[in-house]
Amino acid sequence: MNDDLESVVRKTAAFIGIQHERNIEKAVEMSSFEFMKGNQKKFADMHIARYRNEACGVPHDAVPNKVVTGSASKGRELMDDKTKEIIQGRWLEVVAKQAGFQDYNELRSAFQKNNN
């Protein structure tokens, strides 16, 4: 997405039937790292954090900041090992059982292969 945000937003808009140009332009603007970094509280999900944390076995008071670096993969480097283990365990329980992908990179590679 970082490589061509506008193209991704336009493809998504077309897929869900949005054609209004101003709405698409606004979505591109509000999907940018700069916008999200400047409006971090809008992306905190504090109201759902306790449910997510309980389901994932994460401490109830953990509310991570989602807007950190603008990189989709940088979060892994910042995350502690216990949280990574919990996420991978849930991935194996849910995604691997349903779709057969053992991790996110495997899923992403399959999508990229299908889109080329």
TrEMBL record:
Q: Which SUPFAM superfamilies match?
A: P-loop containing nucleoside triphosphate hydrolases
Pfam families in UniProt: Sulfotransfer_1 (PF00685)
The record ties this protein, via InterPro entries, to: P-loop_NTPase, Sulfotransferase_dom
Per the record, the domain of life is Eukaryota
Which residues does the UniProt record annotate as the domain Sulfotransferase? 1-42
Q: Which GO terms describe its molecular function?
A: sulfotransferase activity
Q: Know the name of this protein?
A: Sulfotransferase domain-containing protein
Origin species, per record, is: Paramuricea clavata (Red gorgonian)
